[in-house]
């Protein structure tokens, strides 16, 4: 019997059409295509933080389906009736032993059966729905076991608690259903996300992910709270504003602008640090402001002054700013490496370096809200959790650091290219201006710089961006990331000095 062809994933996620894939081989479950597909789905609804969680959940459901089908094929091979209580009691220990010692053979036997599993998803107005369907009728024992797991999952805060108190020892079953509920519940998703459907023809598990994790009214209140926080930020320091005006003059010369910089010792020190940093490929140290501004370049000085002004305000106001500046500097360096490595858009090298320094401005506000504001947000969000991850925290607010950062940059009159990067560095495909390529550069550099922090991988990158930068395989992506990491380590001491 030939293996049915796999159904190709459709790309028009927002059309409401059914997107599906059939799985026959167990080996197909942990496949790159599934990872890419989930990445595209979650990016389309701005829930990127759920990527790995959904991959874990859907993989678990697919594996469970394969186990169930393998059991049915095994019983047929042994001449046992799955629906007969005596045969079931006799066959289950045999299947456990076979599955434990010859798992590969169990799953290969599925190739010659009519059993299959279909994974599909469809977009609704308020939620996205994943369906894992098995074309086999569920046994009463299997259904009861699933329902018991669902009920048991409510008493566990995390998977470690569940492992300490095993909820099921039969048929080599793990804690998949419990894991699913814990992961989704801890991601801010309500308990109405899981549904089991059974008929005489199939068994189907439905997972529903709301597009908004809190009510719109509460989101509006939270966003207003954050907007007020941004509105309360002071204007850029007067000396910085004066330097920006001079830098914008068409007839400005090096001596005029360097003389103005030298009037402020703190700005002088910052300009020399930046000019001597690896950001501008410095090899020969310089000690004069005149040479410093020449190295930075007149067209870049306005953005550098904006960066210095923002840094001065944010450093004095927010406690966690060092974390953001550290990552921003790393992203800036990776943007340089990416442009040089791909030999594309060398003219965008300096704009990319500076834009990357500022791409995460909004994260400083979200990470550094004072305790009273955090408590207000928790009340508005009706969140009982004491601890929640950075990504979940951000997306359950109903806004993003990109939106908040864009408001900050508008307040301080940043140039359009930086505004676009701040707004679209996670979704460059939404940027419809001439700065689209710049946004793509920062998007990819940001992911590459974040990999060491456990965020993102080859499969989370938008395929069109990989194609644009001619990255054709996971190996090529990993090799690039490793090259960049080694180059960045060469400058670690320099960037620490720059952040001081």
Automatic annotation (TrEMBL):
SUPFAM superfamilies: HD-domain/PDEase-like (SSF109604). Residues 233-428 form the HDOD domain. PROSITE patterns: HDOD (PS51833). It comes from the Bacteria. Signal peptide: none annotated. CDD domains: HDc (cd00077). It holds the Pfam family HDOD. This is HDOD domain protein. It comes from Leptospira wolbachii serovar Codice str. CDC. The lineage of its organism: Bacteria, Pseudomonadati, Spirochaetota, Spirochaetia, Leptospirales.
